[in-house]
């Protein structure tokens, strides 16, 4: 299957069924193929405005064939589209009017916003007036906004349409313009004289179209059926019809139109319903699981040697370790997701760059930093064993029971109980349930109408949903300044740079990544994120959220309000430990997560790994870590211990993050901005060349807690290293200090040095001169 771009083809109301009908009717010839299954996808407003459509090509047809087909498809769908469009516009307008009325009654204060809207208020980011600002849908409120009135732009004026060519004009004004060449020809004078233009107006102008063979008058011109010509009044045999026949034909035409209208209405209702289903999520938990694999739990084995609870990174890493130590191991993984195991980091980064190039594949392929391509999924579908056959396979393998939730574990009897009561016994079991995104009270307690517009971000479904919003909507607001929120803000801003959607980022802290980065670097990062096109609103929180027409009205702590189409809540994650209570397992009171010993065991033969584990770090004390590397390594160690290796977990895991294409960092140990920090950066020379290696001076930054002190590198005393002056934190290393020891290291745009950082932390000693330690990192190299 591939995605095939049908540039210039408006496919909004022209679904597969119509195309198929036309293929079958022979309107669309399909040389050499009897069956065409080309699913035309609904395109976004953005795509419509830029005359772009796309289709999923699962026909097996080659691109050449599709290219040959394209003009026919266009010709076939165009007349259908016009009638559907009219109906759609009408219904949409009425729905909006009704909804607006309803909302006005519900939220009277929203009128203030509407007035602001009318005044074309300014960008929230720049507005310091303290007045209410409706940023999102205000026409002209931001530079990226379209000039049309939002939310009902598609029902824009038809009043100037001259008589007898309403349909034609409507199409010309349609947000879904036809192929450029059609437009050119239609504006060129002979509106019905061109084949495609004829199709456009065939419905309204068919009489005059027939007449234009002999008429001097332009078809569709004023009187329509008039015209002069030798055949005027001729009863049959040609272009001019008798009155009766004309009436009959008109009636037939009207009947046809009515049928098409009804079809369109049905289609619109279906589309609306589909959209509603996609949108209606319980505070953002996208995509309820529709079905399970296998169909019922009764088809699952009653006993397995290895049972993994959770279908994420830690679980799959444990499987790999088990399999490499016990080659015929039979492993059952139970996940409440509907997918096979996959990794999450690219969801907020690389996948958006694939999406920007229009390259999102079914298996979510993305380009790694090495340049190599890979899928989000750890293994392809064929790799996995059918869960119903797991116990019969000679060579073992991993089977994934998808869509099943574990409710309880009996660690003494080795029994796992599913939500429907089905029990599976195990020899060795791993809990790798990860964590679930948190929401905010303001949304958790909101009305269903508000919740519909609020989502969290953790899965491919969330990616798909957010991408759809980015393609179709006008504003997205990300709440939270942590890893996911900041990464997503940058990725979305990049993805949306040629689109009309505006990205906002709101958080109560003073800067991006403030829990990790020292204040000066957090402030610098915030400016960097803004420069990527994100409207960052620090020191801002949401007091109230109301549904306003089709959007959300967020009332902010500064008295302003922001209208937005969707809110993505990225305020951290809570370990999935609900089974602890039913299973008699201990959860750490302050850190959360299942408490495990050094071997990652919660109870005998019951292990915990990944985000959900709260483990003891001999160097840094009890910890819980939500990072990919920790999931991989702790999952691997748990897997090894499940086959009896009895290893202790003392790996110092690392993490990484990217903020757009220019900023990337890696961290290890306790990377916590509340600790005292010392940062050593390479600064550009006073006469910088546009070369990344032209970095000759070094600045040392000290920070910690709320304030930060700045010292000058003794080697280069002339370097002014006040955060305000240091306009560039190109590359550097930041040490996080506790009891004068380095407990955490952050490598800022410095790569391939994490091993060295790990060694330094593991040395667990005091250093007299951190400059000397910094030199080891060769920040100028
Ligand atoms: C968008 C995003 C970007 C990220 N980027 C980075 C990054 O750049 N660098 C980095 O180091 N880390 C990153 N992370 C964090 C990293 O992905 C996680 O730490 C890692 O996925 C944790 O793996 P896990 O296996 O412990 O949990 P998960 O991957 O969350 O897997 C847990 C699984 O258990 C299932 N489950 C839960 N409860 C039950 C139950 N009762 N019954 C059955 N199944 C259950 C869940 O549905 C899920 O499938 C990112 C995370 C996200 C969401």
Q: What does the model show?
A:
It is a single chain. The chain is of the alpha/beta class and about 775 residues long. About 30% of the residues lie in helices and about 20% in strands. It has 19 helices and 32 strands. The strands form eight sheets. Strands 4, 5, 8, 9, 10, 11, 23 and 24 form an eight-stranded mixed beta sheet that branches. A hairpin with a 4-residue loop joins strand 10 (about 415-420) and strand 11 (about 425-430). Helix 5 packs antiparallel against helix 7 (about 195-210) and helix 9 runs parallel beside helix 17. The two termini are about 45 Å apart. Bound molecules: flavin-adenine dinucleotide. Flavin-adenine dinucleotide (FAD) binds near residues 313, 314, 610 and 655. Flavin-adenine dinucleotide (FAD) binds near residues 311, 405 and 628. Pfam families: AIF_C, Pyr_redox_2. Its main location: mitochondrion.
């Amino acid at each position: 299957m591939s995605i095939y771009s049908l540039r210039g083809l408006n496919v909004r109301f022209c679904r597969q069924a119509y195309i198929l009908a036309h293929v079958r009717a022979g309107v669309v010839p399909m040389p050499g193929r009897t069956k065409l299954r080309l699913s035309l996808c609904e395109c976004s407003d953005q795509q419509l405005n830029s005359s772009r459509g796309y289709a999923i090509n699962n026909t097996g047809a080659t691109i050449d064939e599709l290219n040959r087909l394209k003009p026919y498809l266009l010709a076939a769908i165009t007349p259908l589209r016009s009638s559907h469009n009219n109906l759609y516009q009408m219904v949409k307008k009425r729905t909006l009017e009704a909804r607006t009325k309803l909302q006005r009654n519900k939220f009277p204060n929203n009128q203030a916003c509407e007035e602001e809207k009318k005044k074309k208020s300014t960008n929230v980011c720049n507005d310091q007036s303290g007045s209410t600002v409706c940023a999102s849908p205000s026409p002209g409120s931001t530079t990226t906004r379209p000039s049309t009135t939002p939310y009902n732009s598609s029902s824009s004026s038809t009043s100037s349409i001259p008589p007898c060519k309403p349909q034609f004009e409507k199409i010309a004004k349609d947000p879904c313009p036809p192929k450029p060449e059609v437009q050119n020809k239609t504006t060129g004078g002979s509106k019905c004289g061109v084949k495609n233009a004829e199709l456009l107006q065939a419905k309204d102008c068919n009489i005059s179209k027939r007449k234009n063979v002999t008429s001097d008058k332009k078809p569709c011109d004023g009187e329509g059926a008039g015209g002069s010509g030798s055949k005027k009044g001729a009863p049959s045999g040609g272009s001019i019809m008798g009155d009766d026949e004309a009436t009959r034909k008109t009636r037939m035409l009207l009947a046809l139109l009515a049928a098409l209208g009804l079809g369109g209405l049905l289609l619109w209702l279906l589309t609306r319903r589909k959209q509603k289903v996609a949108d209606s999520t319980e505070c953002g938990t996208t995509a309820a699981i529709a079905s399970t694999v296998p169909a019922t739990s009764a088809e699952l084995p009653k006993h397995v040697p290895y049972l993994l609870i959770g279908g994420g990174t830690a679980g799959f890493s444990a499987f790999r370790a088990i399999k490499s130590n016990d080659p015929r191991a039979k492993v059952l993984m139970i996940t409440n997701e509907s997918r096979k195991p996959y990794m999450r980091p690219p969801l907020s980064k690389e996948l958006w760059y694939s999406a920007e190039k229009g390259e999102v594949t079914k298996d979510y392929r993305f380009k790694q930093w090495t340049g190599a391509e890979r899928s989000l999924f750890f293994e392809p579908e064929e790799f996995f064993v059918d869960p119903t056959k797991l116990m019969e396979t000679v060579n073992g393998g991993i089977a994934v029971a998808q869509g099943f939730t574990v409710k309880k574990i009996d660690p003494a009897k080795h029994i796992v109980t599913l939500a429907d009561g089905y029990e599976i016994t195990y020899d060795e079991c791993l809990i790798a349930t990860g964590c679930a995104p948190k929401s905010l009270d303001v949304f958790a307690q909101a009305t269903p109408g508000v919740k519909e517009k609020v989502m969290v971000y953790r899965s491919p479904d969330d990616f798909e949903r957010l991408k759809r919003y980015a393609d179709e909507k006008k504003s997205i607001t990300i709440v939270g300044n942590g890893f996911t929120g900041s990464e997503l803000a940058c990725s979305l801003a990049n993805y949306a740079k040629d689109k009309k959607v505006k990205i906002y980022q709101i958080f109560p802290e003073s800067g991006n990544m403030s829990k990790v980065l020292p204040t000066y670097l957090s402030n610098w990062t915030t400016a960097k994120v803004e420069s990527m096109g994100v409207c960052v609103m620090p020191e801002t929180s949401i007091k109230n959220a109301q549904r306003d027409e089709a959007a959300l009205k967020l009332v902010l702590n500064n008295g302003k309000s922001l209208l937005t189409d969707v809110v993505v809540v990225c305020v951290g994650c809570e370990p999935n430990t609900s089974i602890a209570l039913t299973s008699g397992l201990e959860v750490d009171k302050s850190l959360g997560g299942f408490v495990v010993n050094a071997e990652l065991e919660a109870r005998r033969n019951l292990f915990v790994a990944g985000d959900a584990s709260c483990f003891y770090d001999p160097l840094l004390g009890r910890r819980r870590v939500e990072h990919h590397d920790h999931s991989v390594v702790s999952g691997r160690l748990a897997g090894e211990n499940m086959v009896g290796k009895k290893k202790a977990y003392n790996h110092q895991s690392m993490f990484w993050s990217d903020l757009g294409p220019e900023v990337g960092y890696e961290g290890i140990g306790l990377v916590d901005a509340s600790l005292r920090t010392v940062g050593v950066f390479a600064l550009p020379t006073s006469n910088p060349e546009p070369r990344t290696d032209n970095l000759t001076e070094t600045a040392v930054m000290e920070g910690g807690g709320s304030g930060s002190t700045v010292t000058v590198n003794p080697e280069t005393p002339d370097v002014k290293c006040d955060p305000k002056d240091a306009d560039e934190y190109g590359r550097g290393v930041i040490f996080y200090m506790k009891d004068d020891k380095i407990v955490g290291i952050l490598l800022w745009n410095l790569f391939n040095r994490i091993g060295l950082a790990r060694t330094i932390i593991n040395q667990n000693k005091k250093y007299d001169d951190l400059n000397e330690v910094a030199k080891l990192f060769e920040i100028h190299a």
